[in-house]
Amino acid sequence: MRITVTVDGTSYTDDVEPRTLLVHHLRERLGKVGTVVGCDTSNCGACTVHLDGHSVKSCSVLAVQADGSEVTTVEGLARDGQLHPVQQAFHDNHALQCGFCTPGMIMQSIDLLADNPDPDEHAVREGLEGNLCRCTGYQNIVKAVRDAAHHMRPGAGPEAERVADTGSRTASSVGGGGE
Amino acid sequence: MTATIEPEVGKGRLRKEDERLVTGRTRWTDNLTLPGLVHLAVLRSTMAHAKIVSIDTSAAKEMPGVVAVFTGDDLDPDGAIGMPCAWPITPDMKSPRRPVLAQGTVNFAGEGVAVVVARGAAEAEDALAEIDVEYDELPVVLGLENALAEGAPLVHEDLGTNRNAVWIFDSGEAGSGAPVEQAISDAEVVLKRRFRQQRLVPAFMEPRACMVDPTAPQLTMWSATQIPHILKTMSALTLGLPEHKIRVIAPDVGGGFGGKIAVLPEEIMCLLVAQKLGKPVKWTESRSETMVAAHHGRDQIQDLTIAATRDGTVTGLKVELLADMGAYLGLVGPGVPILGAFMFNAIYKIPAYHFACTNVFTNTTLTDAYRGAGRPEATFAIERIMDELAAELGMDPMRLREQNWIKHEEFPYTTVSTLTYDSGNYEAATAKAMELFGYESLRQEQRERRDRNDPVQLGIGISTFTEMCGLAPSRVLGSLDYGAGGWEHAAIRMLPTGKVEVITGASAHGQGHETAWSQIVADQLGVPFEDVEVLHGDTQSSHKGLDTYGSRSLAVGGIAVVKATEKVIDKARKVAAHLMECSEDDLEFAGGKFTVKGTDTSTGIGDIALAVFAAHDLPEGIEPTLDSDAVYDPENFSFPHGTHLCATEVDTETGRVRIRSYVCVDDVGKVVNPIIVEGQMHGGLAQGIAQALYEEAVYDESGTLTSGTFADYLLPSAVDLPEFTTDRTETPSTTNPLGVKGVGEAGTIASTPAVVNAVVDAVRHYGVDDIEMPLTPMRVWQAIRTGEKAAGGPGAESGGGLGSIDAAHGGAQ
Ligand code: FES
Ligand code: FES
């Protein structure tokens, strides 16, 4: 099947097998290897990206389902060499060790902050439930998300979702489940 | 060049590693590709124990995109290749050959049977379904005591036994203490307990992967490994390849926790197939494969007998272990439980001690190192039985510990298991932890809840732990029959512009070496933190090393870095004296400058580097280089310690456990980077708590792993863990120049017993004196009602399971 997907601002047209998962399309065809695969049962969240502004687990979406859509990956967040506030907060709060869960954690955190711009500790933990990290014990990830929220308050910095051209980002009820 | 004023060591530097990791510009092994790359997929046995009658690969070979299909006999027709085990713990240890792919029999579900090579990973995967394997089932050996029972079927018929080895330490024989049997028969109080260490999965987040390029002058292997240097040497030895023709690269590695200390059949397979085909090959496993094929951890039955006086002085400890090796021996698998031999006596002055461990084969995935490796098991058992002894004696559990631990003025202290603890201050860490925790007021609340029969009961768990890390003095490893030393290498390259390249043999996979080593070098050489680049994980640039495990990187590898910088300074001093026309003795080195004492004449080390590069005017007989390297062999282990306190609320109506507060005060000696240290503590705690409450690898009676995905194996998510309160005391190690101790495993080692002690403490008044891990709601609920410690049934609820000593299959119960 021929599909066209815009990923991190670049439009790609490819023939794909109907069974190809979005994450494999991103990694193997488009070279977007910043998004990673940690499991085969949609439990780990390492593959989380934004599909038309909402977080999804890209291992549970078929590439063909993304036809005509905009995908943002962790590679598309920084602008002009400047990190997205959530990326910056992960660095500032030592919210990563090996960094394998980090792309998915960051994408899910951005989605979470779009839904709830000022989450308390519990809300952050709930919002990240679908993303596993084996290294950090989550404490610094929670801290980073709340720190990012602080920096992203109105007037404090850029919008949560900085992919300006989608324009239509609304609060999402999708909790990273990929449905 | 500006000299650093404030010391870098001790500063909470944000990590250099982060930028590429937060932007997705990482080099995980599976991200890499090469021209003409073909992909491997491994067919794995679904049987735990069976004869292979036949393997028909003809249909698979016809599948689109398939380049080749190989069986074990195709890759190794003579059956000559055996995966290495580097730790023969006894001279008569039984070692079965572990082939690259099963030959003749399969011995655990998940063992490789055939490999497909295809243009794409999906095509390789598709072809697996077309391979036809005919099996003839053999009886499955599961459960430690089953495996040792008279007439039990054998995992390896040719070995004639399921017993791998028996390893014994006895203080009476070693002369380090009294005979334990005497202590037990003389004792006023004797307590026996059986504890179970369930089987765990290390569960690094990056699945393992390997790529081999046979087209370069050296065979180049990229692997998601903790041990690139060991892998290089072991690959050469295993396949008889010339070692200088192999280069191993560990690029970005997504966690290890001991799970990537291995020489994989898949790595050897990649080497063989790449050479056969003359093409670069890559293998990346799925998570389902990781769960069954990557080694597991723990899995022991621990029988302890402790002897004491009525007033609470411990007089003897006897430990008898059964340890499940799985179907074969991993790289260091047989030695893992033996590391525990030195840690059961923990922080206590125990006059008589006996340790015996029997390693056992079963038809399960092999076990090997998992974070803590041997020490968590020991710490768990001693800290659990100290609580049980306190209950028996009617003493406060902290009082009992205090009465028996080594006092701070008694260091250095040689223990009954013959280690010499260089330093420690258990009083200080405990005092701080008790205060942060609010011990007395929580005890008060506990009494109140008991008195009013509150459905939610409160429990307090203590773990006052120490551990041995910084593996390891080579002579000690030699005395334990380990196949290598424990030194580490570092090198410094002084570049002409004054920048510095540091080469380390430690191989980080999330620990932040690039940042910490930069801090150390910045202080030593007086150069800016930013001017230091740390190179690691490639045997071509970092040719020598023993890699990262056993909390050794800083305490061994970091010290090698210090030693290498000292040599740079020694070389530079000669040149500086020459340039400034003074004697070497007149120079002092500080802040990156050599200054002639009592003057303001000075030369920076960067200027000396440039002068040495030009080499126009060097003293007679001096080589034009400041570059230096050092190999450091530690004189002793490092002994971090700490006091961990956990308060749990147990809902007696549902069995649900909630960690209300977790406080730990750790003493890891001097700290290079407090942010990194705290991160290590957090991650360590998470894994230790997960063992207590959530995780278990469960086999059914046919030897199938039923917790084989992240849907069934309960890795805690953010909602499952509490916020931790971490703090430190700082008693420097006296055996290394930085005063540092290891930190990587401390949290995991300490936390498991703190949590279990807390839960048992909450429900002890219901007659409960133990609950087997993981403490699922069902098990806790059952324990409260029946006093049974392992009730609650298998896997249907979080982590509850059968494990290797299940009653239904004639296990230990
Ligand atoms: S890869 Fe694990 S959820 Fe997608
Ligand atoms: S940082 Fe390693 S898994 Fe999260």
TrEMBL record, chain A:
<dbReference type="Pfam" id="PF00111">
    <property type="entry name" value="Fer2"/>
</dbReference>
<keyword id="KW-0411">Iron-sulfur</keyword>
<feature type="region of interest" description="Disordered">
    <location>
        <begin position="150"/>
        <end position="179"/>
    </location>
</feature>
<feature type="domain" description="2Fe-2S ferredoxin-type">
    <location>
        <begin position="1"/>
        <end position="77"/>
    </location>
</feature>
<dbReference type="InterPro" id="IPR002888">
    <property type="entry name" value="2Fe-2S-bd"/>
</dbReference>
<dbReference type="InterPro" id="IPR036010">
    <property type="entry name" value="2Fe-2S_ferredoxin-like_sf"/>
</dbReference>
<dbReference type="GO" id="GO:0016491">
    <property type="term" value="F:oxidoreductase activity"/>
</dbReference>
<protein>
    <submittedName>
        <fullName>(2Fe-2S)-binding protein</fullName>
    </submittedName>
</protein>
<keyword id="KW-0560">Oxidoreductase</keyword>
<keyword id="KW-0408">Iron</keyword>
<comment type="pathway">
    <text>Alkaloid degradation; nicotine degradation.</text>
</comment>
<dbReference type="InterPro" id="IPR051452">
    <property type="entry name" value="Diverse_Oxidoreductases"/>
</dbReference>
<dbReference type="GO" id="GO:0051537">
    <property type="term" value="F:2 iron, 2 sulfur cluster binding"/>
</dbReference>
<keyword id="KW-0479">Metal-binding</keyword>
<dbReference type="Pfam" id="PF01799">
    <property type="entry name" value="Fer2_2"/>
</dbReference>
<dbReference type="InterPro" id="IPR036884">
    <property type="entry name" value="2Fe-2S-bd_dom_sf"/>
</dbReference>
<dbReference type="GO" id="GO:0046872">
    <property type="term" value="F:metal ion binding"/>
</dbReference>
<dbReference type="InterPro" id="IPR001041">
    <property type="entry name" value="2Fe-2S_ferredoxin-type"/>
</dbReference>
<keyword id="KW-0001">2Fe-2S</keyword>
<dbReference type="InterPro" id="IPR012675">
    <property type="entry name" value="Beta-grasp_dom_sf"/>
</dbReference>
UniProtKB/TrEMBL annotation, chain B:
<feature type="region of interest" description="Disordered">
    <location>
        <begin position="789"/>
        <end position="813"/>
    </location>
</feature>
<dbReference type="Pfam" id="PF20256">
    <property type="entry name" value="MoCoBD_2"/>
</dbReference>
<dbReference type="Pfam" id="PF01315">
    <property type="entry name" value="Ald_Xan_dh_C"/>
</dbReference>
<protein>
    <submittedName>
        <fullName>Molybdopterin-dependent oxidoreductase</fullName>
    </submittedName>
</protein>
<keyword id="KW-0500">Molybdenum</keyword>
<dbReference type="InterPro" id="IPR016208">
    <property type="entry name" value="Ald_Oxase/xanthine_DH-like"/>
</dbReference>
<dbReference type="Pfam" id="PF02738">
    <property type="entry name" value="MoCoBD_1"/>
</dbReference>
<dbReference type="InterPro" id="IPR036856">
    <property type="entry name" value="Ald_Oxase/Xan_DH_a/b_sf"/>
</dbReference>
<dbReference type="InterPro" id="IPR046867">
    <property type="entry name" value="AldOxase/xan_DH_MoCoBD2"/>
</dbReference>
<keyword id="KW-0560">Oxidoreductase</keyword>
<feature type="compositionally biased region" description="Gly residues">
    <location>
        <begin position="790"/>
        <end position="803"/>
    </location>
</feature>
<dbReference type="InterPro" id="IPR037165">
    <property type="entry name" value="AldOxase/xan_DH_Mopterin-bd_sf"/>
</dbReference>
<dbReference type="InterPro" id="IPR008274">
    <property type="entry name" value="AldOxase/xan_DH_MoCoBD1"/>
</dbReference>
<dbReference type="InterPro" id="IPR000674">
    <property type="entry name" value="Ald_Oxase/Xan_DH_a/b"/>
</dbReference>
<dbReference type="GO" id="GO:0005506">
    <property type="term" value="F:iron ion binding"/>
</dbReference>
<feature type="domain" description="Aldehyde oxidase/xanthine dehydrogenase a/b hammerhead">
    <location>
        <begin position="23"/>
        <end position="139"/>
    </location>
</feature>
<dbReference type="GO" id="GO:0016491">
    <property type="term" value="F:oxidoreductase activity"/>
</dbReference>
